[in-house]
Amino acid sequence: MGFDLSAMLKDVSNLDTSRDQIEYIDIDLIDQDPNNFYQLSRVDELAANIELLGLQQPIRVRDNPDQPGRVIIVSGHRRRAALQLLVDEGKERFREVPCIREKEAGSAALQELRLIYANADTRTMTSAEISKQVERVEALLYQLKEEGMEFPGRMRDHVAEACKVSQSKLARLKVIREKLAPEWKSLYEDGKLNESTAYALAKIPAAHQSYVFEGVKGKNQTVGQLYQGQVENYEKKLAAVDQLICKRGARKDFPCSNLENKRRKIVAESSWYDASACSKCCDKCDQLAKCKYACPMLAGKVRKLRESAKAQRQHEKLAKEERERPVIEQITQLWQRFGDARAAAGLSVKAYHKAINMYHYNADDQEYPERESGKGIGLNTRLPYGYTMSIETIQRLIGAADALGCSLDYLFGRTDDPHGRLYGPPLTQKQIDKMHFDKVWLSYGDGDPDDGEWAVVIDGWIYDIATLDGADFAGTVMDEFRHIAEKLDRPSGKYTVHYGPRSKLAVDPKDGED
């Protein structure tokens, strides 16, 4: 006989729903259909809506053939769950549930098919639910066919009609249902894996699906972040590795002995990791020394490469330290000079900050003395002249003064003398006692070697003795004698000639040369 599936199933929607057909059944007598595979989502929200507005649509039920007096839900599993939630909260007014009892019509297979058709119209289903629905509808239609019903045309057309899905979607769901690995299928059924990604996974070998699964877990990547393009890229690389032949094997067709490591590297690295790097022998790889997936047959070569790389890193470290050492020494010297000046001025760190309008942190009270004593100095140690004053800035300023042949005091307007000669404040005897100085003889010319005068060198500066012993600033060291200062034993070999500050120093000009 002919069979119009659509017309038969649509009868479910045309049942009489008048008031006299509605009966109120105790919720404890209403059972779920064991064949219902749909997820009961957002039950809490539905319960709140029912409590506020009441149940808007009765539940469809049929008699339970195995337990007289009880009924089985045809349509309304989610509504029944929401009502049960309200009853469990003590809201007894929802215990009696408005129901429409359907008459038995046809076989159990036909009844279940009508249930599926009703749900297809009334709920939004996940891809996994649609897949289960398709699988079940197909089984039910074949069961009905065995019971004598005839289905004109192709069976898959009837399945698509009953489930309200396209033929292409049916084909995708069939691949997912039959080919998706168990570890992925459970995630797909829980709604954590979208259909396009599940389909891409189902199309690749089961072993490759397992490698991708391990890779996602190892990178702490959520399944929801995996997308179709990544899966296709993984498969391209894994397929290339499968063809790799070991060039060190006894036979030409000997497969690569490092395939497992290569596969794991592909899925452990970035999703766009270059497949060509692992489709060749490790012997030719420029990342061999760094790769933890390297072929064990190359252990000796890997060891040598790593030792060489370690030696190179040590060499680069020492070279870096050598480049940085002069800079650190200069920073240390600048801090020490600052400390001497701050001590001479009798300023606390807080008072110094106030004088230069710089914010003061309590930690500076401990940090400044440590830096002034040379402790904790590094390449990035800040200088005490403001947070934007770096050693690079200091070096550029000094370089500018050297290039222009003048002093920083002149550049910054501290003096009108380009050579920056200033008469400083008197030194205390205690300060002088701490100084290291050498007495030198400054000759007045190429004639009589006795024609000259004594001077002293303190911290690289030449002071005439007349100044240091308290006399007037008459006996100065002139620029024409600068060549003598250049012979002094200092690392730079250069000294600055200038007027010295007033101070008292017990130096006998008549003493012999040291």
Automatic annotation (TrEMBL):
SMART domains linked to this entry: ParB
User: One short Pfam family name for this protein?
Assistant: ParB_N
Q: Which SUPFAM superfamilies match?
A: ParB/Sulfiredoxin
Sequence ranges assigned to domain ParB-like N-terminal in this UniProt record: 23-119
Q: Spell out the GO cellular component terms annotated for this protein, sorted alphabetically and separated by semicolons.
A: chromosome
The biological process GO terms on file are: chromosome segregation
Q: Which PANTHER family match?
A: CHROMOSOME-PARTITIONING PROTEIN PARB-RELATED
What name appears for this protein in its UniProt entry? ParB N-terminal domain-containing protein
Q: What is the lineage of its organism?
A: Bacteria, Bacillati, Bacillota, Clostridia, Eubacteriales
